[in-house]
Amino acid sequence: MGRVTPVDTAYFAGERAGDFTVIGSPVQRSDARGHVTGRTVFFEDLTPPGLTHVKIHRSTRHHARIDRVDVSGAYEVPGVLRVITHEDVPNNWYVVLRLIGVGPDDEPVLAEDRVLYRGEPIVAVVAETEEAARDGAARVVVDYTDLPAVLDVEEALADGAPIIKQAGTNHFVYEGHHCRRVRLGDVERGFAQADHIIEGRYSSSPIEHAPVEPTGCVVVPQGDGRLRIHSNTQAAFFTLDNTALILGVPPTSLRVVGGTVGGGFGGKVDVIVEPLACIAAMLTGRPAKYVYSRAEEMQVSSTRAAERIVIKDGVMDDGRIVARQVTLYVDAGAYSRHSPYGATKAAAHMPGPYTIPNVHIDCYCVYTNRTPSSAMRGFGVTIGDFALESHMDHVARELGLDPLRLRLKNAYRDGDMKAHRKIASGTALVEVIQRAADLVGHDLPPEYRAMSSAERPEG
Amino acid sequence: MPSTIVTLTLNGTERELIARPSTTLLNALRETFGLMGAKRGCAQGGCGSCTVLLDGRPAVSCLIPVVTVGGSTVDTIEGLADGDRLTDVQQAFVDHFATQCGFCTPGMIMSATALLDRNPDPTRQDVTEAICGNVCRCTGYEPIITAVLSAAERRRDAPQSPATAGL
């Protein structure tokens, strides 16, 4: 089939080849035929003989000390093969990001003496059938002593807040600092120069990815002692390496078979189900399946982090932003997972695609007694963009300026210094706004039409 | 309660199974007959991934005890294509990029096939109503609706489509 979407060759004609053969042309998906015939193999389509099932007994408290765990009831259920507690996990404490050097390990595979969120896994039950595993998990008895819970990011950072993390603070520590910071120029001097100070406060709720295929895996012991992990993970090597670390085995003793993911959107990047399924398979010598129910998917799988963002801009009468101060709180929930990374991305992103001479950003990764948050489609920047661009519209309204012209005036161009002290290149934002204005019939005067991201004639 | 012998016509062939009272049609298809096309998504009737045709009508197989469908015809995604030859609906899904992760696709195609079998000239509204029980989290539905309307057009142009021949 030929090209169906015309490629706009008007911009940057001298800077790229014009012989695209794929862009603008339809190419059949390589997996489509398998999908429409039902032949694509998802992990749950694997039913090895002797398959066992793993179900979890979860915390019913937001924050509590565990006084006693009684698993005897589970063993009374016909078909229950084995109950797994933290004592069965070789290296119970982990953090997914340790693979890229981010620590400390802050999450137990199975809770030990404390739970930090409602739904935290405490005991796993392995059984012949799903019903028996579910029934066994339901019969585990846990005695708790409730502890004060912190459910709000700003409350978690307030003086006198109960400290819920072993590290001693309710925020992640970035190389000795309380938050991830970006500093350029002198923001107070910028505010002093500005004709207007315009502030905004923005917030978002946690968002569940809700993949149609629930998170899960099937682990099959091999004749040579290796474990073959059929998983719908989005991150096969995170799964391989983290599972090996948790099991205390070399990565070569595991084999991850993945690549078919029934919806993920970032929600299948964490390494949650595979280690327990592997332990179940090791303890029973039989294949093990651990898959979330829909309720678990909605209640305990990681969410996109809720964020609270405060933006303060110093703006001149003509719309130039001369100072921007941002305080951003990422609600990591009870455990790190990918949130320290998301908060770093948020900090780097919050100056926006604008050239602002004075920037001051504090981005906190905050722990609360809520469901852990983690990766989801552009996490750390999508909510930031919502806040930033809402704020740009707010600034435009306050000053009575056209919102597109405000953005063009502040858009960074090639050669500009970004707030992280990187020189901007390949920016193209000016041209994108101009083209978007054309497409929606938005009027732009000649001086805005003449702007280019490749040069800044006004200096 | 004792198990029951259930006889049904599955993808055109009479089949028999011994089922416990709690066995769902979905589990019977997957575990007894090895037909993995119908997917277990929510297992509570909410997502439509397990949709099959029961006596020609779309049904969520995760909610149906298989002992209740003795004597019925059941058609699954595996019964649609004639060898390597796709039905008009399947081909339209390929052509219009109506698949992404593929997990909802079998159920979605079964609902669309049932619609076109009873309504050869559906409106856009008819299509959206027909697939309203099938959740897709990837495509945003637009390519799927386009594919179904396109398949209807294709079927009107070529009424001897294998889709209807197989059911």
Tell me what you see in this structure:
- The complex is a heterodimer of chains A (459) and B (167).
- Chain A has 459 residues and is of the alpha+beta class.
- Chain A has helices spanning 32-37, 72-75, 130-138, 153-157, 187-193, 236-247, 273-284, 294-299, 339-349, 382-399, 403-410, 429-440, 446-449; strands spanning 52-58, 64-70, 80-84, 93-94, 107-108, 114-115, 121-127, 141-146, 180-184, 196-203, 216-221, 227-231, 254-257, 288-291, 303-304, 307-315, 321-333, 359-367, 373-374.
- Among the domains of chain A are: 52-146 and 210-300, Aldehyde Oxidoreductase, domain 3 (Alpha-Beta Complex); 180-207 and 303-402, Aldehyde oxidase/xanthine dehydrogenase, molybdopterin binding domain (Aldehyde Oxidoreductase, domain 4, 2-Layer Sandwich).
- In chain A, strand 17, helix 9 (339-349) and strand 18 form a beta-alpha-beta unit.
- In chain A, helix 6 crosses helix 7.
- Chain B has 167 residues and is an alpha+beta fold.
- Chain B folds into 2 domains: 4-75, Roll (Ubiquitin-like (UB roll)); 88-157, DNA polymerase, domain 1, CATH 1.10.150.120.
- Chain B has helices spanning 25-32, 88-95, 105-118, 124-130, 142-157, 162-165, and strands at residues 4-10, 13-19, 51-54, 57-60, 73-75.
- In chain B, helix 2 crosses helix 5.
- The radius of gyration of chain B is 16 Å and the shape is globular.
- Mean pLDDT of chain B is 94; it is low at 163-167.
- At the A-B interface, helix 1 of A face helix 2 and helix 3 of B.
